[in-house]
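Dear colleagues,

As part of the handover before I leave the project, I'm documenting each prediction I ran so the next person doesn't have to rerun anything. This entry is a single chain, and its sequence is reproduced below.
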Amino acid sequence: VQAIPLQNEYPFMFDTMNTNTTESGAFVFAALPAGEYALQLVTGTGSTQPAQTVRLADGQRVTGLVLTADMTESLTIVGHVRDSSGWAVANARLSAMGFVEGGSAYQRSATTQFDGRFELTGLPDASFMIRATADGFAPAELAIQAGEQNAQVTLSPAPTVEGVVVDAVTMKPM
């Protein structure tokens, strides 16, 4: 089960917390800060289920939540991450967030293989926003429909700033 904080501009990218279920299906998130969260089931096959929103006040304990798994959803997004020269970007991190009719949220993540290939599996029939990040590159986003088998994400070099710090009196580098 994932607890995704909803106060961020890109909630699928930051501070997602995970916990496992027991054999009886029970789960516990201990010590969550006050705030609003989307609780989402991620099955053993990697498929995600609609999220249930929970709002917590300081010290509040919420019990009795039931997350229901629908194992019939099985669309996949397959694609490649490349740099602006067309070379594959290995180990790029992808996060996808989508919403289905009724407002249920789905989240998936993947890491590219050596050839830049990725798969986001277990998706419902919905539109998704994919965000790709990799060291040395600026993040890139792509809006796409679940089931796409040739998604192409292009990463551009990250902006850089270079300079020298000098002593104000001597003008010598420090």
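DSSP finds no helices and eleven strands in the chain. The first strand starts at residue 2 and ends at 5.

All the best with the project,
I.
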